[in-house]
Structures are given as structure tokens and as C-alpha cells.
Amino acid sequence: MTDERLQEMIKEAAASYRVPKDPPFDAMWARIEREHFGASPARRWLVAAAGIAATLLVGIGIGRYTAAAGPSLAGDAGVPTAAIERSSNLADPLQRTTSAYLDDAEVLLASLPKDSRGLDPSFVTNAREMLTRTRVLLDSPVASDPQLREVLEDLELVLAQAVRLRAASRAQDLTFIAEAMDERDMVPRLRTAAASLSHSDY
Amino acid sequence: MTTSAIALEKGTPDAGPDEWTLITRTVQGDRVSARTLYDRHAMRVHRVVFRICGDDELACDLTQDVFVRAFGQLGSFRGDAAFTTWLHRIAVTTALNQMRKVKRIREHEESIGEEDRHAAPSREADPDLKVRLHAAIDALPEGLRMTVLLHDVEGYTHVEIGEMLGIAEGTSKARLFEARGKLRVALADFA
Q1: Residue in A closest to B191 by C-alpha
Q2: Which of the 8 DSSP states describes residue B75?
């Protein structure tokens, strides 16, 4: 048999040599993502739940104490009506926490420095804390709202990049984060989400 | 099958960020970029590891292992070789290591009939040429089989195969020559 003939035969047979079935690519990605990017949502929830529960308990406690001790908010001439309405709308503690969190996130992202020389170490610390809160909220009932969930997921991506910033980070790193924020229209969407949350039940 | 995977399979360029940008962003923790890299390469990686191991379930596990390892080592990727070559080197190494483990287990479990199992089947048993050729490729020693598989089946160059298997380009050529000689003998009665 000549080399040419053999090569021809191999070529013909190659197309049918051990052809795999279509694998479940999305399901396979789930394990890759979990193993590379961190613990499963359930585990993250368990780890971080204690933190958010403590925050909620303190908030509820303060609220009850001030409600029992002080005069009615409606009777205070210095408190704007809109603030009173928002306060009463956000009766659910988790909803209140989420609304405050969205405000904090907007402030944090707006403070992203233009270059790494202006990088305040507290920015990264705050971003890390915000990332933890984001993941907790993603695993909470708040994330059952599809639009809010999308905002939270995009925010998680941006924050995951932000926590890797160092004083020696390249300008390109900041550019990537800024681009990610722009592409996802992050700050305006956070503002909108906070506003809609304060005027509706999720 | 994802759109990107289909595009790759058809050999058409995939729209979106260039590979180096995706790699940089993945190193920085961007899941979307990591997923895009996965979409672009998963199908071919899966096909290569399946052709090495021949088992659907194992190929899925190995493909996942390959990407977990690749993303973990991505920070050390300097672009000396093409990303595809680098990734497929991990794929080949991961699959071969797994197959060596499987082979050790089988050797431990089966001490009788091993020679018969690996012998090229007779023409009477497998009259179809493709079946005979597939069996002959399967029966090649590991180093020769990998070279035939990567060169003749997957279409890699000897330089790329050298990078993937950690051998010289000349060694890859010599292995292919030897493998073809063995295949020619196995298929002699079809000439």
C-alpha cells in the first residue's frame, strides 16, 4: 500500500473516528465556574448569612427602639414627606437593606479612581465588603426579581474585578472596570433599581 | 451547542473581544470573559479528550478538569504559543494522565486475555475498512496513537504536536512515520 493511499484512507476514516455526542456544555460550565470562581451559592449563603442576619437584627432593633422612644415621624416638621413615604413603603427589613445597599453601591462605583495612583486602599476594602453583600443578596429572596437579579449579577462581575485592584495595578485594569461599568450601564441601573424598589414590593 | 461553538466548528471567526483581552479579563476574575473563552474552545477540547479516552461521561469530566486547570494557570500564560495550543496541551496531558490511571486499574483487574483484546481484528470479523482502521489506531502504542490522532485526525502541525506532547518536532515526524508503517501492516489486506 502506498503512503498516498494510506493517507487517503486515514483521512476518510478520521471524520468518523470516535465522534462524541454533543455534551451538556452549560451544565459542564456550572462546575467549572464553581470550582474556579468560588464556592457554590448555597455555601456562600451559609457563610455570609450570619453577617446579613446580624445587620438586619440590629436595624430592626434600632427601628423598634426609636419608634417606641421618639415622637411620630409625621409630626416632625424637619422630615420631608417623601422620606416618610419611602420609609413606610420599605416596611420589609430585607427590602430596606437592599435599597440602602444599592445606594452604597452607586456611591462606591462613582468613586472609582481614574488612575491607580489615586487608588485609596479603602476603595478595595469597601468593594470586597460590597461583593460579599452582593452575593448574599443574590442568594436571597430579593434576587427572585429578574431585573434586580440581572443588576446584581452585573454588579458582582464589576466588583469581582475591583477587589483585585492594587496600588500597583496598571491603568489598563482600571480601564477594564470602567468599560465593564459603561457597557452594563451600571450606575444608572443601580439608581433605577433603588428607585423602583422603594416604590414597589418585589 | 452554543453559537460560538458552532462558529468554531464551522471555522468561521467568532465576533467579540480578541482572545488576549478575554484572557486578561478572565485572570482579573471576569466570569463573562471566562465563559466566552469556554464557548470558543470547549467543543474542540471535548472532541480531543473524547478521541483520547473514547468515553462520553469521562470526556465531559475531563473537559471540565481541563478548563478548571487552564483558568487556574491562566495567569502564567505569556502567549509564547497560541492559546489554543497551550489549552490543548493541558487537554492532552489531563486526558493521558487519566487514561494511564484507567490502564493501570484495568491491568490490575484483567491479567488474562489482554493480548487478544489488543490484537487487530481479523478482516472476517470487521469487514468494514473504517472499523478496521479505527481498531488499528486504537491498537497503536500511546505515543504513536497520539501523534496520528493529533496530526491526521485533528490536523495539528508537527510543531504544535511537539508543544502539546513536550517532544521535538522531529520526534513527532518520526512517530507519525512509524505509526503509518504499523497501520499499513494492519490494513495490508485492503491494498
Answers
A1: A1
A2: G
Largest Cα–Cα separation, chain A: 101
Distances (CA, A) of A137 to A88, A120, A192: 22, 26, 17
Confirm whether A182 is domain-assigned: yes
Q: How far apart are CA B20 and CA A122, in angstroms?
A: 30
Flag whether A53 is in a domain.
yes
CA distance A79 to A88: 13
Burial B161-173 (b: 16+ CB within 10 A, else e): bbbbbebeeebbe
A162's grid cell? 475591583
Tell me how far apart the alpha carbons of residues A10 and B132 are, in angstroms, rounded to a whole number: 11
**495539528: which residue's cell?**
B156
CA distance B128 to B12: 34
CA of A165: which chain B residue's CA is closest? Answer: B28
Burial per residue of B90-116, b for 16 or more beta-carbon CB atoms within 10 angstroms, e otherwise: bbbebbbebbeeeeeeeeeeeeeeeee
Domains and CATH numbers, chain B: 1-111 (1.10.1740.10), 120-191 (1.10.10.10)
Sign of the Cα pseudo-torsion (A85, A88, A90, A93, in order): positive
Cell of B38: 469556554
Q: What is the pLDDT along chain A (202 residues), one digit of tens a residue?
A: 677 777 777 777 777 888 888 899 999 998 899 888 875 444 455 555 555 655 655 555 555 555 555 544 444 444 344 433 444 444 567 777 788 788 888 888 877 776 666 667 777 788 888 888 888 888 788 788 888 888 888 888 888 777 777 665 666 677 777 777 877 788 888 888 877 776 654 4
Domains held by chain A: number: 1
Residue range of the domain that includes A154: 40-199
Query: Would residue A13 count as lying in a domain?
Result: no
Contact: B30, A173; criterion CB under 8 Å: no
Q: Find which of B48, B133, B149, B173 to mutate to test the A interface (most A CBs within 10 Å of its CB).
A: B133
State the ipTM, two decimals: 0.74
Cα B191 to Cα B185: distance, rounded to the nearest angstrom: 10
Minimum CA–CA partner of B49 in chain A: A20
The answer to whether residue A14 is domain-embedded is no
Using CB atoms, which residue from A7, A12, A25 is nearest to B5? A25
